[in-house]
Amino acid sequence: MPIIVAQSVGKTYKSGKLQVPALRNVSFSVEPGEFVAVVGPSGSGKSTLFYILGGLTAATSGSVLIDGTDFARLSDAERTKMRRAKIGFVFQRFNLLPTLSAMGNIEIAHDIANLGRDKKIELDKPLLEHLSGLLGISGRLDHRPNELSGGEQQRVAIARALITRPSIVLADEPTGNLDTKNSDAVLNMLRTSSRELHQTVLMITHNPEAAQVADRILTMRDGEITGIAAGRGIAATV
Ligand code: ADP
Ligand code: ADP
Q: What integer is the mean pLDDT of 186-197?
C-alpha cells in the first residue's frame, strides 16, 4: 500500500478578492521507502504541495492519504499528532532554535515527536551516534547554531528530522543554501534514510542535478505535474 496518496489535489489561495491557483488536479502516490524528488521553477506549486502533504495547510479540493488516513477526516489535534509521530521536516533555512545547542535541538524534536505518540519512547542514543557519524557532526553537538557553518546547521537539521525515525521525511529545498560538498552530504544522508533506514523521502528542489539522487522525479509547472521520470538514485558527484 502506498504511504502517500495525493488524489486530484487542488489549492487556491485567497488574497483579498484575488484567487491565486497554486495546485491543480495533482495526483500521485509514493511507496514506503521510496525517494521522490519534486522539481519545477519558482511558483510552480512545490512548497504548497509540501505544506499540504505535511498537514500544515489544507487542500482546497481532492484528498491526501498518509498511511491510508485521509487528512481531511482528522481533527486539527489528530492531524498534529500524526504529523509529530510520522513526519520529519527539513527546511532550506534550517529552522534550528537559536538558544539551544545542536544536541538540544535534536532532543526537543524527540520530545515533540513523543507528544504525538500514545506510548513514549526513549531518545535512541545509538541512532543519534550513527546519524552524527554519517553526517560528520559528532564533535559539534554542544555548539549553538550561530557557532556552526550553514552546512553544519543543515546536517544538524537532518539529524533532528531523522532521530524520531519518522516514516516520512519531507525536505523543502534542503540544499538550497549549501555549497557542493555540504549539498552532497545532505543528499547522501537522505538517500541513506530511504535505502537503509527504509524511510520515505519526498524532497523539493529547483535543482535538476540534486533531484537525480531520487528514485523518481516529478516535474511541476503552473501547479500541475507535467512529467514523471526515473532518477539515477545517487548524488551527482559520488
Ligand atoms: P514554489 O514552491 O514552486 O515556488 P509555491 O507553492 O510557493 O511554489 O507557489 C505557487 C503559487 O501560489 C504561486 O503563484 C505563489 O505566488 C502562490 N502562493 C504561494 N503561497 C501563497 C500565499 N500564502 N498566498 C497567496 N498566494 C500564494
Ligand atoms: P562546512 O564545510 O561544514 O560548511 P566551513 O568550511 O564553512 O564548514 O567552516 C569550517 C568551520 O568554521 C566550521 O566547522 C565552523 O565551526 C566554522 N564556521 C563556519 N561558518 C561559521 C559561522 N558563520 N559562524 C561561526 N563559525 C563558523
A: 93
Residue 187: predicted pLDDT: 95
Q: Which domain holds residue 103?
A: 30-58+72-230
Cα–Cα distance list, 193 to 13, 99, 200, 201 (Å): 33, 28, 8, 8
Q: Whose CA is nearest to atom 20 of ligand 2?
A: 149
CA-nearest residue for atom 1, ligand 2, is 151
> What's the chain's length in residues?
238
- Does the pTM surpass 0.90? The reply is no
Distance CA 135, CA 156 (A): 8
User: Does a structural domain hold residue 13?
Assistant: no
Residue of minimum CA distance from atom 6 in ligand 2: 149
Give the SS3 label for residue 28.
strand
* pLDDT given for residue 177 in this prediction: 85
Over the stretch 81-131, which tens digit does the pLDDT of each residue have?
Answer: 999 989 999 998 889 999 999 999 999 999 999 998 989 999 999 999 999
Q: How far is CA 230 from CA 36, 185, 187, 194, 197, in A?
A: 9, 21, 16, 16, 21
Mutate to test the pocket of ligand 1, among 18, 20, 24, 173 (most ligand atoms within 8 A of CB): 20
Within-domain flag for 194: yes
